[in-house]
Amino acid sequence: MMDRDIEVFRVIRKPPMGKLVVEVNSTQYEKLSEVPSGSLKQRILAAVGDLVVFVDGYDTLVQAGMAPPISGTDQAGEPYASSVEDRQAAFRSEIARQRSEAQLKSQVQEISGKQDPQASGESATGLDSELNMVDQIDIILQRYLAEDPTLKGRVAHLESAPGGGLRIQVDNHYYSQPKEIEDGRIRRALMLALREWETGE
Questions:
Q1: What is the span of the domain harbouring residue 141?
Q2: Which residue of 66, 74, 136, 186 could cross-link 61, Cys pair, CB 3.0 to 4.6 Å?
Q3: Same domain for 71 and 144
Q4: Is position 117 within any domain?
């Protein structure tokens, strides 16, 4: 849960023509394609999505003459949902998913004490980028557990909590932070997995 304001980006109009640019960490971008792939681009997309929700949906922009109407098919050639309400519901669902992913990344950074790698196409550890972050870390954790013969038969997983965020399963118990885990061997394996995911080492 956020307990302080966070500036995602600044929107600036540049003279003389009033061109709009987005500034993130003192770097200015004129188009989304200029933003490096990874968490930075995801944060910008999520924030822009929130702004669309703020104006009560894309159709508000269309009706105000600020955006072109949506065509009958998406870029993949698939028909859009039949109603505005369905399209907006699907859009909000995607924004919620992106928010959840950003929250999970923030929690991983908090418990590992490191910043997330700038992923592009493939994760720093070479894991399939289609896997979400929690699954990637859990795969690494399972390898560390398998390499320790003293942990044979023990169950430990990093997973998404039903209400959002992270939780750690150790046998039949659940924890929100590695420091809460009593077994130092499992705690160490989890921290090693987090470090490997963060650094790609």
A1: 133-199
A2: 66
A3: no
A4: no
Which residues pair with residue 19 across a beta bridge?
Answer: 14
Instruction: Give the pTM.
Output: 0.42
Q: Please check whether residues 77 and 139 belong to one and the same domain.
A: no
Q: Which of 60, 82, 112 is the last residue of a domain?
A: 112
Domain count, the chain: 2
Written as tens digits, the pLDDT of the chain (201 aa) is 456 777 888 999 887 667 889 998 889 998 888 988 778 888 888 888 888 888 888 888 778 777 767 655 444 445 444 455 565 556 556 555 555 556 566 666 665 555 544 443 444 444 444 457 788 888 889 999 999 899 888 899 988 877 667 788 999 899 888 888 999 999 999 888 888 887 765
Q: What is the spatial distance between Cα 135 and Cα 158, in angstroms, rounded to a whole number?
A: 8
Taking alpha carbons only, the member of 145, 137, 148, 147 closest to residue 195 is: 137
Asked, for residue 122, whether it belongs to a domain, the answer is no
